[in-house]
């Protein structure tokens, strides 16, 4: 089975698990890019009032709902898992300004009008970057902003890969049990090079460490701009 099929099955099982348990999850009162509420918040996305924004791999949709309610953004939230989508629609299906889309992210990017801002809280690493990044670059306006968080080092101290290949990681289930996913946990310079191949320029990478010094768990938050080719090429002749 290929990595993305494994992930699709795992996220569908994950959503079913939470639907069956009717897991209570609190609202987001502060945007969290890592696994804990530390580090930068929603301000890194800039002024979102009235802007078209895409949440890629939106899961339950809590971050998207927060941006709609607190920042006046118009958010499309795309997720490929039918059970995650069911959780999201049960919770936010009537929130004006939020559109919950059940689709593969690449399929959605290929048919959507371009976005000013695209972000992802731990969604990118489940999708083959060679498949995702061309579609992502085409769906982001020139000058537009891409911000995403990804795993860098696991709790057992395993650092990122230096080659573009997925690897098995554990997705724990509340109440016990675990699923296996296959993730692209890549070194920052590998992400930077992949993004650069599609005109996506990394401006800053934040380190999001676990608050406990004894826990090696660490994420990275990438701040990326779509190169504005019209400006990069300088003034045009008549
Ligand atoms: C770690 S969860 C992200 C949770 C969410 N961003 C949040 O902040 O609560 C990853 C999500 O990515 C979704 N996903 C994985 N592959 C996808 C794909 N190809 N297209 C769209 N969503 C995908 C999964 O279904 C899952 O809900």
Automatic annotation (TrEMBL):
CDD domains: AdoMet_MTases (cd02440)
Segments crossing the lipid bilayer: none
Record-linked Pfam families: Methyltransf_23
The protein's name: Methyltransferase
């Amino acid at each position: 089975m290929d990595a993305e099929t494994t992930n699709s099955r795992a996220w569908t099982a994950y959503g079913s698990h939470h639907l069956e348990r009717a897991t209570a999850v609190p609202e987001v009162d502060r945007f969290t890019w890592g696994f804990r509420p530390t580090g930068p918040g929603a301000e890194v996305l800039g002024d979102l009032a009235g802007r078209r924004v895409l949440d890629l791999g939106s899961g339950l949709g809590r971050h998207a709902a927060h941006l709609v309610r607190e920042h006046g953004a118009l958010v499309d939230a795309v997720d490929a898992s039918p059970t995650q989508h069911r959780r999201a629609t049960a919770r936010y299906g009537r929130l004006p300004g939020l559109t919950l889309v059940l689709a593969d992210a690449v399929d959605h990017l290929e048919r959507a009008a371009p976005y000013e801002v695209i972000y992802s809280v731990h969604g990118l690493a489940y999708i083959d970057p060679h498949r995702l990044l061309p579609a992502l670059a085409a769906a982001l306006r020139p000058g537009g902003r891409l911000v995403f968080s990804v795993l860098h080092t696991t709790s057992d101290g395993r650092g990122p890969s230096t080659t573009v290949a997925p690897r098995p990681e554990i997705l724990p289930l509340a109440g016990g049990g675990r699923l296996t996913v296959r993730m692209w946990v890549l070194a920052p310079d590998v992400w930077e090079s992949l993004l650069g191949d599609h005109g996506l320029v990394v401006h800053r990478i934040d380190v999001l460490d676990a608050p406990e010094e004894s826990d090696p768990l660490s994420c990275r938050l990438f701040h990326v701009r779509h190169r504005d080719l019209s400006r990069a090429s300088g003034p045009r002749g008549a």
